[in-house]
Structure formats: structure tokens, C-alpha cells
Design brief:
This protein is α+β, with helices and mostly antiparallel strands. It folds into 4 domains: 132 residues, Immunoglobulin-like; 106 residues, Immunoglobulin-like, CATH 2.60.40; 81 residues, Sandwich (Immunoglobulin-like); 74 residues, no CATH class. The longest helix has 31 residues. The radius of gyration is 52 Å and the shape is elongated. It is 21% helix and 39% strand. The strands form 6 sheets. Strands 1, 2, 4, 5, 6, 9 and 10 form a 7-stranded mixed beta sheet that branches. Strands 11, 12, 14, 15, 16, 19 and 20 form a 7-stranded mixed beta sheet that branches. The chain has 6 helices and 28 strands.
Length: 431
């Protein structure tokens, strides 16, 4: 059996040249009309070792396509029949989508960085239409982390978005936000500053760091940077991002609410200030701290609510405050307001009075039960005699001697029986 002849690089090159000749013939026959196609993503950005897709979407059935790496003029892959022809340097590294013509490039390295030109033929409504376009591939050695991320600034502050890429800087550019709005670009000569940032940005051409002055709230967001350096004679690419947070506040604190309020009506004060992030509100009533929150409410005002209401807005990031004050007058009359000490005095006096009455009743009843008067007298009469016992001396003096002796004896007996059970009660009775 005859053995199959192995393909040599020379044979592969011949096949590639044949494919190019066939493609040129097709392009000659297709006519002069050429459709420019924009890639889905341009530029395509990746790091060393990544797999990337150079994605195109021509509007028709693909008949032929080729991809050329323009810096070196190498035909990476071409398709003029059912089987793509791949350059030897890209074997096992590229895959061609034969439906759309998109090119996948795997395990990219720094040498893959550059512009890839594509052209081909599609069939549209039975007609052959040529197309062409290009896409830029940016391959970075590694993502460079900013020195500080996020960078925090107050409104009006000056900040530096600092980076330190390895090697000697040869080019760098900065853009703002997902849309990639240009900020500044430098490639060895004077930096080119975008019109919106003139007189506001500076570029350190040694490190690529970006300086931004007079920061405002609209400057807050993500800044993208990219560039290249030279390390040991080799070009090294870098990219990355840094977030800028701008804080304006608090500013212009104010209180909304009434200046006057009727007695027993409800009042709500609200404090507002411009602040990023949102600030903390602290309330003071007549100089005394009372509560926190955006609003202060009184359900039913009284005369004691008349006075000064002050709100202090505080930003925990900027450590700044803003103060607003409002005066409230309560209209209408109400009874005198007693202090806590006066109320306590009234309570104590009331308790003492009640205690005195209770003791008087107690001893009155006690004397009634011990009175030696005529048992034929009714209880009311005996109690009356007992209550007026200290005034009985006049009656005692007008009695005959024999009666006075009996009375005195009975009085001594009664006094003896009235010995108090407690010293405090006895002392009170003795007085």
C-alpha cells in the first residue's frame, strides 16, 4: 500500500497561496460593489492567555471570507470552499465560524496585538455581494491595579487617580465611564486633553497617573486606563480601571414646618440638606438634643413647646455639618403648668393632711369607746364628750367635791387605758 505523503510547511504555503488566488478570482468576478461591515465589538480587549472572538455578522449567506493580520500581512485563515485554510503559525489556535465568518483566537499572546482585516463574499437575494472591514485586538500583559480604589473626594477637591505600570511608559490614555468618553491621551509628545477636561486634568508621563481638579458630582464614576510600557526591550501592554466617588455635603440645610401652631394641634418639622451620601439629621429643642431622623413631630402642642427647633445635618464621610433653625409659637391658653417639684409638694401635703385626718378619727373613736360617762347617753353624746375632753375642765370645776373626786378617779383611769401602742402616736397625743 502506498503511504500518504506528509504535508510540509512548503506544501501548506502552496495551499494557502492557492486559496488566496481563488479568493482573488472570486473577488474579481463578484463585481465592484463592496459592503463595509462593522464588527460586533471593536476594539476587542483581552489579557495574555485569554480566548477571544473577533465577531462579525454579514447580512447574507457566507460564500467566502479571509482574515489577515495586517501588521505582518499574514493570512490567518481563509475560506473559499467547505474547508478553511489555516496559516501554519495559527494551527490549533484559531477556529473559523463558517456561517458568520467570525474568528476565534485562543491563548493569545502579546504578538497577537494589532489590527485584523477581513473581507469576503455573501449571497443576498441570489446576488454576490462583497464585504470588508477590520477589528482591533488589544492584548495586555496583565491588568494593572490602581494604587487606591475607590478614590474619594469632596466637591471642589483635587484628586489623583494613581497607577504604577511596570516598565518605562511609552503611551497611555484615560477614558470616563462605560461609553469610554475620552479624557486624555499621550504617546510620547504633549498630552492631548479632551475639550471637556481642558484646564482640569494633568497627566504624569512617568507613571500615567491622572490628576483631576475641582471635582464635582458629575465626575463620579469609573475611569478606564490603558497603555504600554517597555520592559527589557519588549513592549508590555496594560489596562485597568479606578472608581472616583465625589461627596457635596451637607449643604443648605433647611427646615419646613409652621411658625405658629394652635394649642393641642399637631406639628411636623422636616429637615433637608444636599448630601452624598445621605446625611444624618439630629434635632435640638431649645438647645437640648431630642431625637434623630429627617422629621420631628409633635402630636398635640402645648405652651411648653414654644421655642427654638434646630436641625443639624451631618455627613459621616465628609465629617461636615449644616445647621438650620426655626422658631415655633403656640397660640391659645391653658392652665398653669406646674414644675415636677411643685407637683411633688402638693402630693406630700395631701398625704400629710389625709394622715392627720385619719389619726384624728382614730383617736376620736378610741376616746368614745373609753369614755366613762353615763352609759345611758347615746354614742353620739359620748363621742362628743370625748372629742371635747380637753375643754371639760370648766365643768369639772363646778362639780361638788364628792362628784369631783369620782370624776378625777374615772379620768385617771381613762387616761391610763389610753396608753398608745406606738411611741410616735403617744407623742402626738401628749402634745
Amino acid at each position: 500500500m502506498q503511504s500518504r505523503k506528509a504535508l510540509t510547511p512548503h506544501t501548506t504555503m502552496e495551499n494557502s497561496q492557492a486559496a488566496l488566488l481563488m479568493l482573488g478570482l472570486l473577488l474579481f468576478l463578484k463585481g465592484s460593489s463592496t459592503l463595509v461591515i462593522k464588527p460586533v465589538t471593536d476594539p476587542v480587549i483581552c489579557e495574555v492567555g485569554d480566548n477571544v472572538m473577533l465577531h462579525i455578522e454579514p447580512s447574507g449567506a457566507l460564500a467566502a471570507v479571509s482574515w489577515v493580520f495586517s501588521p505582518k500581512g499574514i493570512t490567518v485563515v481563509s475560506l473559499t470552499s467547505s474547508t478553511p485554510v489555516i496559516d501554519p503559525g495559527y494551527v490549533n489556535r484559531v477556529t473559523l465560524n463558517t456561517t458568520t465568518g467570525s474568528l476565534e483566537l485562543r491563548s493569545v499572546n502579546r504578538n497577537d496585538d494589532g489590527v485584523y482585516v477581513f473581507d469576503g463574499i455573501i449571497i443576498v437575494s441570489g446576488n454576490r455581494v462583497s464585504f470588508e472591514g477590520n477589528v482591533t485586538l488589544k492584548v495586555y500583559a496583565a491588568a494593572v491595579k490602581p494604587v487606591t480604589d475607590p478614590v474619594i473626594s469632596k466637591v471642589g477637591g483635587n484628586v489623583t487617580l494613581e497607577i504604577n505600570p511596570p516598565g518605562v511608559l511609552s503611551s497611555v490614555e484615560w477614558a470616563f465611564g462605560p461609553a469610554g468618553i475620552p479624557v486624555v491621551k499621550w504617546s510620547g509628545s504633549n498630552p492631548v486633553i479632551a475639550p471637556n477636561y481642558v484646564n482640569r486634568v494633568t497627566l504624569n508621563t512617568n507613571t500615567g497617573s491622572l490628576g483631576l481638579s475641582s471635582a464635582n458630582v458629575s465626575d463620579a464614576g469609573v475611569y478606564l486606563f490603558s497603555g504600554n510600557t517597555v520592559v527589557s526591550g519588549n513592549r508590555e501592554y496594560f489596562n485597568g480601571s479606578v472608581t472616583l466617588e465625589v461627596y457635596d455635603g451637607p449643604e443648605q440645610a433647611s427646615i419646613t414646618g409652621p411658625d405658629k401652631a394652635a394649642l393641642n394641634s399637631s406639628v411636623t418639622f422636616k429637615c433637608l440638606a444636599q448630601s452624598i451620601p445621605p446625611c444624618i439629621y439630629i434635632w435640638y429643642v431649645n438647645g437640648r438634643q431630642t431625637s434623630q431622623g429627617i422629621q420631628y413631630q409633635i402630636d398635640a402642642v402645648s405652651n411648653v413647646d414654644t421655642g427654638s427647633y434646630m436641625c443639624m445635618a451631618w455627613n459621616s464621610v465628609t465629617r461636615r455639618t449644616s445647621i438650620a433653625e426655626k422658631k415655633l409659637t403656640v397660640t391659645g391658653k391653658e392652665g398653669p403648668v406646674l414644675s415636677p417639684g411643685a407637683i411633688a409638694g402638693i402630693v406630700i401635703a395631701t398625704l400629710v393632711g389625709v394622715t392627720g385626718i385619719a389619726l384624728g378619727v382614730y383617736f376620736s373613736v378610741k376616746l368614745c369607746t373609753k369614755n366613762p360617762d353615763d352609759p345611758n347617753l347615746g354614742p353620739a353624746k359620748r363621742c362628743l364628750d370625748a372629742v371635747t375632753w380637753p375643754n371639760a375642765s370648766e365643768t369639772y370645776e363646778n362639780m361638788p367635791a364628792n362628784q369631783r373626786a369620782g370624776k378625777a378617779k374615772k379620768q385617771d383611769h381613762t387616761y391610763t387605758d389610753l396608753q398608745p401602742s406606738e411611741q410616735s402616736t403617744y407623742s402626738t397625743l401628749k402634745k
